Amino acid sequence: MSRTALSLLPPTLNGQADPTPTPAADPLLIYSGELTKLRAAMEAAAAAVDRAERELEKRVCQSSVARDNPPLLVDQVELARLLAVHLNTLARMEAVGDLGPERMQFGKDKKAVRFRFAEVQCWVAAGCPPRDRWTWPAKK
User: Fold this and answer.
1) Cβ(18)–Cβ(9) under 8 Å?
2) pTM of this prediction?
3) Exposure of 84 in the CB half-sphere (CA atoms within 13 A)
4) Tens-digit pLDDT profile for residues 101-117
5) Of 70, 120, 123, 125, which is least packed with CB atoms within 10 Å of its CB?
6) Pairing of strands 112-116, 103-106
C-alpha cells in the first residue's frame, strides 16, 4: 500500500496509535455530552416541579376550606379561589350558566351570596358540567 493510501486510513488501521478522541472529532462524545446536559436539566426541572407541588400543597392545607372542619357555605371570593379563577371569571361563569352550584342569597336585601361547599365539591368531581346539565345528588 502506498504512503498516501495509508494516510487515508483511520489511525487504528494504518498502524498508528489511536489518538484520544476529542469532542470536536468524535460525534458520539458530543452526543454523550449533550445527553448528560439534557439529563441534568431534566433532573433540575423535576426538582423544581416537586418544590412547587409541595408549596402548593402547603398553601392548600392552610386554606380555610381544607381544614378538619370545612365550612358549610363559601362566599364568591372563596369559591373563586377554590376554582382557581378570577372573581370576574366566576361572575361570567355564573351569568352564562357555566357555574353548576346553586347560588344562595341571605339577608334582608339578599346581598349575602353563598354556595354550598359540599355541592361545589360534587360539581368539581363530576367534571364541572354547566348548570343546565348539573343536578346535585343531595337535592333529589
Assistant:
1) no
2) 0.50
3) 4
4) 999 998 888 889 999 99
5) 125
6) antiparallel
